[in-house]
TrEMBL record:
Organism of origin: Acrasis kona
GO molecular function, one term: cysteine-type deubiquitinase activity
Entry-linked Pfam families: UCH
Name this protein carries in UniProt: USP domain-containing protein
Domain (USP) ranges: 1-293
GO BP: protein deubiquitination
InterPro entries: Papain-like_cys_pep_sf, Peptidase_C19, Peptidase_C19_UCH, USP, USP_CS
Length: 294
């Protein structure tokens, strides 16, 4: 475990030059957006900075179990992966991590943080009016007076992981994937209307994100392991509520060495001793904070 000062003290000279402030140094990750043209198979890849991952929450519906919908979704994802292994995430590795993180193997509707991450990185189909303007093969239609758009597949992945990872679970808003033509939208969607999603999400104390790292990333062969140290929970409804947090205490010994201690529950100005059991099984997370284990 590390403090912000420890994170910055370990930076290389080129990292210091490229980092504008301590927020970027600690919280910035780099996401890769890969688009594969369905016509000419050209790959366009763009990297973009972000400071948190804002992930959707798959909702449980009565028509099929979450496990059944995941199995169907897996088959669709695998079909795309086989054609573009150098650019796409491996569904086998993601599904393996989902099964590993489940607390109750007999619960077919248990939603885990890995389900949310898979929804976040799900392949998105671009077609019709939302088609892709391919730099290689899109051309101007003389009769229509506009460029011909191509069908394409888009996927987000992690190019460079953050030292301190903040995951925001989308509990507030309209229907999941509204306006987004994702393969996942037809399998793992919530009901319409403005509302709070109160689905319980299982999350681990130790998180591995290796299965979400882009194949070209220098981190591709690492486990990319994180350890939980903070949780923010929203109690209440869409119209009113209260935020509380759980924080794992940072302790410093006489030699200046740092380590994490006990869990504390904090509500406004009140702090009370908590436990790992209360954090993992008694909270409904809105924000999750993990530290990269180096």
């Amino acid at each position: 475990m590390h403090t912000l000062d420890e994170y910055t003290s370990k930076l290389k000279p080129d990292e210091i030059k490229s980092s504008t402030n301590i927020v970027d140094t600690c919280f910035k990750s780099v996401l890769s957006s890969s688009i594969i043209c369905g016509h000419c198979k050209n790959v366009s890849k763009v990297n973009e900075d972000c400071h948190d991952l804002s992930v959707p929450i798959p909702s449980v519906v009565s028509t099929a179990t979450l496990q059944e919908r995941v199995a169907e979704f897996y088959n669709r994802e695998m079909e795309s992966y086989r054609s573009h292994k150098s650019e796409m995430l491996n569904p086998d590795k993601i599904l393996e991590q989902i099964n590993f993180d489940k607390r109750d193997e007999n619960d077919e509707n248990e939603v885990t943080l890995m389900h949310c991450m898979w929804a976040f990185t799900a392949k998105e189909v671009l077609s019709g009016e939302n088609g892709y303007n391919c730099e290689k093969c899109s051309h101007l239609d003389q009769e229509e007076g506009k460029r011909v758009l191509r069908d394409a597949t888009k996927q987000l992945s992690i190019q460079k992981p953050a030292k301190v990872l903040t995951i925001h679970l989308k509990r507030f808003g309209h229907q999941l994937y509204s306006g987004k033509n994702s393969l996942l939208a037809h399998l793992m969607q919530s009901g319409g209307g403005l509302r709070k999603n109160s689905t319980q999400v299982t999350f681990p104390k130790s998180l591995e994100l290796g299965s979400f790292i882009h194949p070209s990333s220098p981190w591709k062969n690492t486990m990319c392991k994180y350890r939980l140290f903070g949780v923010v929970e929203h109690q209440g409804t869409m119209n009113s509520g209260h935020y509380i947090s759980f924080v794992k205490q940072l302790q410093v010994n006489k030699n200046g060495e740092h380590r994490r201690g006990e869990w504390y529950r904090i509500s406004d100005s009140h702090a009370a001793l908590s436990s790992q059991l209360e954090v993992l099984e008694g909270s409904q997370p809105y924000l999750l904070m993990y530290e990269l284990v180096e």
